[in-house]
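Input for the complex:
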Amino acid sequence: MNSILDQPQLAEPFLGSVLASAGLDVEYIRGEGNTLFMRGADGREIPVVDYAGGYGSLLLGHNHPALTAYAKSLLDARVPVHAQFSLHPEANRLALALNRVIQREVGDEEPYLAIFANSGAEANEAAVKHAELDRVLRLQAVLEKIGTDLEPVRSAVRSDLATVPPAVFEQLGLTPQASSPAALEELVDALTRLNAVQAARPPVLLSPEGSFHGKLVGSVQLTHNEGYRAPFKALATQARFVPVDQPGALRRIVDEERSTLLGLTVEDGLVKVTAQDTPVFCAFMVEPIQGEGGIRELSKEFAEEIQRVCAEIDCPVIIDEIQSGMGRTGDFLASSALGLRGDYYTLAKSLGGGIAKTSALLIRESRYQGQFELIHSSTFAKDGFSSLIALKVIELIEADDGRVYRLAAERGTRLKDMLASVHKDYPEVVKDVRGRGLMTGIEFHDQSDAPAPPIQEAARAGLFGYLLAGHLLRGHRIRTFPTASAANTLRFEPSVFLSDDEIQQLDTALRDICDIIRGNYQRPLSLPAT
Ligand code: F0G
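Predicted:
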């Protein structure tokens, strides 16, 4: 019996009981490469192959020796961890390194300026905050321009060089009247009121259905799963979620949200109403491969539609590469293979090499608002230790002419081929195999009508995947989880050091699960150790 369970449970105790119900209540005591060691009942260490990979944070595995040695050397050298509000050359070197890699991959010279944060959700919220600042400034500029453009109209009407035709009053919902400077002011008041209504509208945030962008107050609004989002809807602006498999859906939503700001001009001696788009679109946030939503890759067609429509409405595209980036798919950015280009990118997870907690927001220079730096900050962001570790991570990923990218692609293909062969042999059990590189998933058919009552119950409660995870752990010493918003999909996100033996071990384990399901649960899925 694990001694920790003999103590009162005060750290998220509810979760402990959920873990226990699926047999996932184990304590890990050591991590190395793809292996986590748990303590067995007899006190011995039991190795577990880690396919959960820190939810995608461990592209380089647990405690990569070069990273831990470097971390020790930094601490021994007493590198300042916190020196806020001073120059941070190491953060700048990191920004330069990220730019070098991204520019090479997307083939564009325009630099991305970096803001650092501590977690994925925080980087995404910083991205939305920056995009909103940019939108508000654009909105102000349009309103100011409308205001200054009124002056020549006023002076033309005052000096009888222009008149206001009756139709213009009707256009703004007023009763037509004779043209005069006073009548023009009534028109201006009406127009200003209409514009104020448009300017006060909340920003429009867009994201594909199935997205996961974090669980903080702002980012949870861009996380599609109602289970996470519903209680917090009143706290922030609601996003519009775009169906991923309906060409034209984005266009329809954009058309619903589009509105205009009105101005006045003089043409051929007549006052005319002008209209232009309200800058209401704040951002489109998208994962190139949805992770938590079930390992679902964006189609090239949808990527192209996002790019085209967002360019047309001047809406920045924020590409969330928090899980898919850093080389996991064989490219530094999973979006580059889709031809999707971001105005913003967010990175986290593997950026910290599994030992630092850091994230980065990269913003295209032409969209960058320098004043953001003075109104956004975080005590821990951009700390010296994390920046230097992240720099080392980039160095390791880029080493040997990109060996890590090649490994991610090659190991990923090997892993996916194995999953595909399980799918082929058990089509009535396995519904689909998806993903790219070391971001793969296997989806099982729904078991809501399974003959075994506990399985049926678990499936109906959306917990089937957790039962499978418990079986993999207890029966096969394999650690993985379902993707929480698609609970019949198990995800596999190991490090690039995944071995053939480890793939074989997973193959055996998945076939065992499939045999149990195909045999109508004649044999039980293993439950918590007794
Ligand atoms: N964006 C993506 C694409 C993510 O996968 C995650 C987290 C986040 C943002 C939030 O990052 O947890 O550091 O605040 N994904 C985890 C998962 C929770 O299960 O895949 P965070």
